[in-house]
Each structure stands twice: as structure tokens, then as C-alpha cells.
Amino acid sequence: MPSDGSSNRLANSRRQFLRAATLGSAATVLRPTRLVGQQNLGRSLGDGVGGYGGRSHFEETVRRLRASRYPQAAGSLTPLQDLYGTITPSALHFERHHAGIPDIDPSEHRLLIDGLVDRPLVFTMDELRRLPAVTRVYFIECSGNGRVKWAPAEPDTDVQAAFGMTSCSEWTGVPLSVLLSAVGIRNKAQWIVAEGADACRMTRSVPLVKAQDDILVAYGQNGEALRPAQGYPLRLVIPGWEGNISIKWLRRLHVVDQPYLTREETAKYTDLMPDGKSRQFTFAMDAKSVITRPSGGDRLDGSGFYQVSGLAWSGRGRVRGVEISTDGGESWVGAQLQQPVLPFAHTRFRYDWSWDGSEKILASRCIDEAGEVQPTRSALIAVRGTHSSYHNNAIQGWRVRSTGRVENVDV
Amino acid sequence: MCRSALPVIIVAGILELCPIVDAASGQAEGVGQPATTAEVEAWGSIVGPDGTGLPPGGSTATEGRLLYDRQCAACHGLTGQEGPDPRLAGGVGSLGGEEPSKTVGSYWPAATTLWDYVNRAMPFNRPGSLAVDDVYAVVAYVLYLNGLVGENQLIDGDTLPQIEMPNRDGFVPDPRPDLANTSFQTAWGDPNLQGVWSYATITPLQRPVHLEGRTFLSDEEVAAQNRDSAIRATSERRNGLTPERDLSLAYNQVWWDRGDSTGRTSLIVDPSDGRLPGLTPEGRRRQEAQEVARREHPYDSWEDRPLQERCMTYQRVPPVPSGYSNTYQILQVPGFVVILNEMIHDVRIVPLGDRPKVSERVRQWNGDSRGRWEGKTLVVETSHYRGQTTWRGFPGSSNLKAVERFTRVDPGRIHYRYTIYDETIYTRPFTVELPLVSPPEYVVYEYACHEGNYSIANVLAGARVQERSVRSGVSADLKD
Between residues 118 and 177 of chain B, which touch chain A (CB distance below 8 Å)? Predict the structure, then answer.
């Protein structure tokens, strides 16, 4: 805490002033009576060094909780509108749990690999950390992210509500392929049932081909151990696929000959189509992007220059391009992509824009390396109807009113 | 996609493309402890759809009723329908409607899932607290609430996997990409034409005389033609045939790959009469010479036999649809488009850009192709043909030039047209439009010509026998 409380008060009053000004309640733009920017020049000693750092107490952005009956079977949403760059701070990584966050002592945790294997093995965390490791940047997105977009746009929905179930981290762990070669996969093996150590013992069937390709058994997130809400001490990270299959609190990999039709791949995470049939094992996340700045709930401070910025990602590899429209999708121009563009990772895009003060509709669309282009909402529901719940990657529009107010709109 | 099995000794730049391989070299030998049976048991059961993992035990709905009322009903309702937590019963028939209700009875494909889930996750506030027989009991009761089992039916490891769930056929594999939203671009930015494409159609190359003056068929006519074609493809009955007759029908109806009508009366879209243009005097002369040769020297030598009979090529550059194998498989790499016509393994490797053509003196049965992009359209120009087309809907000379245009218009369709220029044979160019569609799960079947090409010897030998018998006055009616 700063020792000088007065600078704090000043800063707060300055923010209140700005807020009042931007809300338009001040008829003319007032200039502060003091020279802002000079008061905080430290003339008293600041805080000393510390153990585990926290953020500035001026920073207030938090995850928002989705309404649900039980906090243990619930979700929280990443505040994408407040993030810079591509990595989601671990503390702001979205959450989706079905039976709460278990409190696991890593020295007690074990991973069992059994089933159609030659040598069933049990690993301690220490043993797992002895194995060859890799570090990769991957997003994890809940396939229910964007669910609100099955319904027509509500003006007040913001980016956190509509897109907050995606986050991107730098993960460290053992390639699952290494563990599989340690146990020896039998001929008939086709799938792996992964099981979590949470109260509901969450399970999903994972195709063996993907397991032998690029799945991580991760213990590290953004340079430190996984956060409890992200599976501490061990989880799967399955690049590009719907978040639910990246089983957290991983305790078992059971190698089998067929998908086990767990509840999470039958009752849930299946996509109901208008003909009453459901798509099953819809793993890959589609090409997607959203402008995070400016975005719903913002108010632009008069015409002039604004850099438009947002995130794009695809479960089919790299983002090849992002296009921006300022006229509601009538015309599109390319945005700049922050390099390096990594496969299965959030990609930051930016577009320099001068607002002329008239009403505009901003939108972005992602084109991935598989050639998929993010569709409009109407194109999406023309094929899939409105009951499929998952995998909505419709283009997001933000209407910028001439007042500067930014609202959610379908394009 | 990269495989972890790939060797790892690749240059650093390539590793970037392969997310995992750099670590896969290490073996986990000696790390990890062998799992004991006791450990595997302690981890608990994971139940598969065939009942694998279901422990011994069993129960009935009658026994489950009280347990359900006490342990589950507060959250799921006494009949499984009142909530407040997820509905477990009812909803059958609602899935395709305005308000689909996904319950165990209406939605879940396997009853084993219910056992596995309740065992691992319910009751929500005390998961794992039910004894094995209690799980069987509440599972039986939830199935009973859905009308799927009788009150006193024993539910155990044998009976549970056999319960036929109403929605067991309600799940389909992931068909994505399913929207017309691909930019159809390759990773390096060229329009993407890759895939397996069929140009099968029942529409004839030239407009039949009775349709003179009409470019398109009516919707009813199209429907009728497609229906007739489908009926023909499935109507064949072969029981009761003699072996000879059966053999003579080797090319049975199912074999033919007819496709549907394009809706036009001819594949030729220009000239507007839908027919091949008139022949030049030279064209006529060549055609007559060809007819004479076919009539008078049909079997003198293998060289008198058409190329396709000699298993060389069907000269499908560009093609006219025939009975089967009407497929293109298109592959792309930067700078090249590769077009495979499986009949007869004809691969065209088409360089893109302004790479010069082969020398004028180099002549090929299927010409020499060069491609370029005009916007999203691939334009392929082919010339340097040998000029001895003996098989196809139309003849050509060595001056033949074909210009094909491929434009991907949606995930499953390429707009495909070609124009034929051959001043030696025709009085004007003409243009053909073919369907190029990619129905889901369409496959190219391997084409095996004569299964080793013994036939040409037999064809010629047969002709010699025929000649001898004609000479000796014995009639022989041999056909190839």
C-alpha cells in the first residue's frame, strides 16, 4: 500500500472526474485545476520488496461470474476488454467447473495410466517433472463460449459476457506421447478416457491419434505451477479443442478401444441440429475473433484516432489473417497481426482507425490457415439452427453511436 | 499435421511447425512405478458402452424409488421432470422442435452412461457416497421414470448395456466445415481447389434433337430424370440367371456412376444450340479417314485399338463424363496444381505462372498444361497434343488447345468450364460446362485396367481366329 494516502485520493478524484467527463454529464470539457501527472512523483518512500507480488490496487478488472445455482457448477469469464497482448494472466483465466475446485496436495497426487497398455504405470508429480518437457502457448476455449450469440444481440452485452470463456496461457508439461510410449500402447487401443480428480471425477474420451500428436500433460502455467482453478497440480492441455476435454486435476488415463460415451460427450458438449440429430465429438474450435477495444460498454471520447485491437484464434492451427469492417460487414480491410503468430494460440490484431464521429459498426473476422472464415450469425444459424449450444463463432459487431457509446450488435 | 513419430533431427526452423516433436525423443524409461492391481482397483471403475467396468451387483426400480426420493428428488424432482436441477425424464420427440428437452430418456444414447455418471458425480452434494447396488437401484429408477424399464426388471452388468435408448441413433460425426464460409484458400494464399470431385452426370454432351431450342430442363423434368436414373441404379435383379448371362452383366447397374442431371439439356453451353460446331473440310476428311480405318482395319495391330483399350489413357484432358470413374482429385503445393484422373492414373502436374511450355516438337497424348490464377479462378491452358484423339466425345488435331476454368463456389462445388479451340477440325471454338461436386464421403475407387492388360492379346488373337474362320467359310461372331 502506498504510504501517502493523499496521492491515492487525488488519483481517485481524477478518475472520477474523467468518468464524469466521458459520461457526458459535463457540458463543456473542464480542465483540472492542478497539473495532473505531477502529484504522484514519489517524495515519500514506497513499499519494500515482497514475496508473492500482487497487482496495483488501482487495477480492478476481475472475472465475472455467470449466473448459476451452485458456485461449484458454474463458470467465470475472462475480462478480455481489459487485457493487453496475448497471454491471459493466470488469475484471470476463465473457469468452468462441474463440481468445484479440489484442494490437492501435489505430494499425494498420482497419475495412473492403465487399460490397453503393456505396462500400467503410476506417476508421482516428481516423476512427471523428470520427464522431457516442452513449453507451448495454447488457448483454451469453452465450446459454450459465445452461447449468448445464438439469440439476437442485446445492446448491453459486452465482450466479457459474449467471449470471456477463452484464455491463453503458456503451458509446460510432458507430451502425452512420451507417457504413452512409456506404458506401451496395445494394438486395439483407439481412445483414452481421461479422468479428473474433482468431486465429479470428470471424464472425457480422447482419440488416440490426437494423444500421440500434440497433447500436453501440463503442470506449469505462465511460468509457475498451475492455478488450482486450472487443474493444479496436473491437467491435460489439448491444443485447439473445446476446453472441456482438457481434463483438469488429471488422475487417470485409461486406454480403451472405443469412445466411452461419458456424460460430457453425450448429454453435454454435443451439438443439437434443427433436424433433431446431434453432432458428437465436435472437438475443434472454429476460427474466431473479436474486437476487445473499443468494445461493448465503452464510450469513445470524441472523434479522432483510436487503435482498434482484439484477439483472433482458431482450433485448426494458425490465424492467417484478420479483417476489419467499420461499416457493419459491407467492406473489409486487413488488420496487423502481432508476431509471432502461433498455432492454437490467441493472436493479437490491431487496426489504426480515425473515427469521424458518425455512427459506425465495427466488426472483425478471422481467417485461419485451414481457410475457414468466421461466419455471420445468420450464416451460422441457417445451417445449425439456434439450439446447438456449442461452437458459436459468429462475427461480433460493435455499434459505435455518434455519442461515442459502444453497443453489441449482430452483423 | 505433424506426427510425433517423425524423426527429430530436423532443422530448427521446421520444429516450429511441429508442436511436439522436439521432446518426443526422450523415453520415460524407468520413470513411474508399475501399477498394482490394488491401485488400479482403488482408482475405481470407468464404464464403457458395452458394459465394461460395470461392477458385480444389480437392483430394480422398485428398490431405487425410496433412494431416489430421498437422495435425488430434492434437486431433480419426484418424477425427474420438475427440477430445479437438470431434467432427467420426459422430452422424447422434442429434439427437432422449438423447445428441445434433453433428458436421459430423450437424449442420452447409452444407459451405461447413466450408471457411470451417477456413480462418479451424484448426488451432486455427496458424490461417490452411493454403494454399488444403490447406484444400480437409482439408475433403474431413473430409467423407469423414462418408461425404459419395468418396475421390477433387474438392472445389472448384463442387462444395462442392452437397454435400447430412444435416441441411440441420434448422434452423427462432426461434419464441419459445414458452412459456406471458407475462403477456399490454401495455407500459402492460393484459392483452394483441393479434394475429390465428381463430374458424373446424366446430361449428354450434345443436346438431343428432341430438345432443340431448349437450354434448360424444367424442374419436373430434372426430378424425373434423376429419379429414373436412381431407379435404374437399384432395380437390377440377378437371381435366377445362368452363369453366362450373369457374366455378361459384369458391368452391373450399381457399377455405373451416372450422377444427376445438370438441369441443362447439354453439357455444351456454347454454341447456343448445345451441339458440337460444324467440321472444317479438313476435319471432315480426318473423321472419314478415321471411320474407314476403324471399319476396315479394326484389329490389324494393337495400334488400331483405341488408347483406353490399351490401358494407356482415356484422354480425359479435359474430360467428357462416361460410365464410371468420373473423378478428379486435385492436390496443390506452392507453384503447382496436380490433377489426378484415376482412369487411367493420369496425373497432370500443372505448373503455375509463366513457365514456358515444352518444345513444339514434344507432343503428348494429354498435351502440356500451364496454369495461372485469374482472381479466384484457376485457368489451365493445355496444348501440344498429339492430335490423334480416338476416344472422347469429340476428336481433335495437334492444333487442339483446351482452356479450363476452375472456380470454387462453395465447400462442395467447383464451377468448371472448358473451351476447346481447334481450327483444323472445327469451324469455331466450343465450351463445355461440367458439374464438379464433392458429396460427403465420396471416394475415388482404384481403376485397374484389364487387371494386368491380358485382353489386348486376346482381342487380337480373337480377330485372327475370326479372320481364319471367315476365310474357311465358317461363321464366327466374335466381339471384343
Answer: 120-121, 124, 127-128, 170-177
